[in-house]
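Kindly review this protein for my students:
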Amino acid sequence: MSSRGSLSERMEQLRKSAPPRPPVALPPTPLFLPGLSEFSRAMPNHLARSSLFAPVARGGKKMHKETVLVSRKDAVLTFWGEQLDEAQADVWMQLMHEAIKAPLGDAVPINRARLLRTIGRQTGNYEYQWLHRTLKALSFAMLIVELTKDGMPKLEVGRAESLHLIDKFMYDPERESYIVRIDPRWRFLYRNREYALIDWEKRLRIRKGQDMAKALQGLVATSSESVQRFQLVWLKERFQYSSPMRKFRASLDAAMQELERVEVIAA
């Protein structure tokens, strides 16, 4: 039996042994994230460490159905939806950046041209169609997040009531804008400063075709340690890289060189 399967079973046993908790109805309130600025974007640590967003090819993507994502041993993330890529991660981070300016849970207007420019993309029919497909993928994407601390349940979101990356969205053709709503329960994934601050300017400087560098930037941002070590086998699985290890090493070296170039990491 795989270690992830064993961890998922243990989480299920712990969940069943815990006393029942009534559902929490959260009124829309602002989400304050210390350290966040116009020059950074925030992603919950457990998402940034997982394979939810990965540097995969833009073509046909794997569809997940109750898939336990690659992550750390203190988290079980169960996912339904298409495999999401790093460009879609850019969209989600920007949407969250806009959404938290209002009480989380409120409907927020998002100008589509401004959003595309903010994530470093062009505007035009192809890009608008890509953005619409991305919003559909994010609204369909569903997660159950189960966290533990010292072997005991710490947080569970998405089991009793579905949790989507985007709760809902609507396009307004007259204003060429979207109306987006984010589930207020996402605040639980950001609390206690458990989020990675992504340097947005440096992310936009990462060259096209270097999505692994983007994925690595998000991963290293989850820790303040100056020296970080990861097992190659785990990284390969985390990045959803299916080619042989020798090719993965070469791609990883290129990604690290790119992060050195934009000064995310030091040699």
Summary: The mean pLDDT is 91. Residues 113 and 124 are 8 Å apart (CA to CA).
